[in-house]
Write a structure and sequence with these properties.
By secondary structure, the chain is mostly helical. It has one domain. It has 2 helices and 4 strands; from the N terminus they run E-H-H-E-E-E. The strands form 2 sheets. It has a two-stranded antiparallel ribbon with strand order 1-2. It has a two-stranded antiparallel sheet with strand order 3-4. Strand 3 and strand 4 form a beta hairpin. The termini are close together.
Length: 100
């Protein structure tokens, strides 16, 4: 069994930022579909669900990605501190037939 004692801060924060961008894109698509379907379902609410345009479609995923990256920069050092205090976390890693 391997023991995880430290996580790379910048790589993990970068992963979290990229994951946030993809999550933002998915949420943007769902929001767009929702705003297109609402006037058909509730015709009296046509003005309530307005589109925020192409700029909003770009800014929203980037904002979520940036927030996720900064959260990673703050959170991962705290995780490393806890790992240091507790002695790490046991991991069972299997690659093919070999177990580490």
């Amino acid at each position: 069994m391997a023991n995880l004692k430290k996580i790379g801060v910048l790589r993990t924060a970068s992963f979290m930022g990229l994951y946030g961008v993809f999550t933002g894109i998915i949420l943007d698509i769902v929001s767009l579909l929702f705003s297109l379907l609402m006037p058909m379902i509730f015709p009296t609410l046509t003005d309530s669900f307005s589109s925020y345009g192409a700029l909003g479609f770009l800014i929203y995923p980037l904002a979520i990605g940036l927030i996720s990256f900064v959260s990673g920069l703050i959170f991962i050092p705290l995780v490393n501190l806890v790992l240091k205090i507790t002695g790490g976390v046991g991991l069972k890693i299997q690659l093919g037939d070999q177990i580490y």
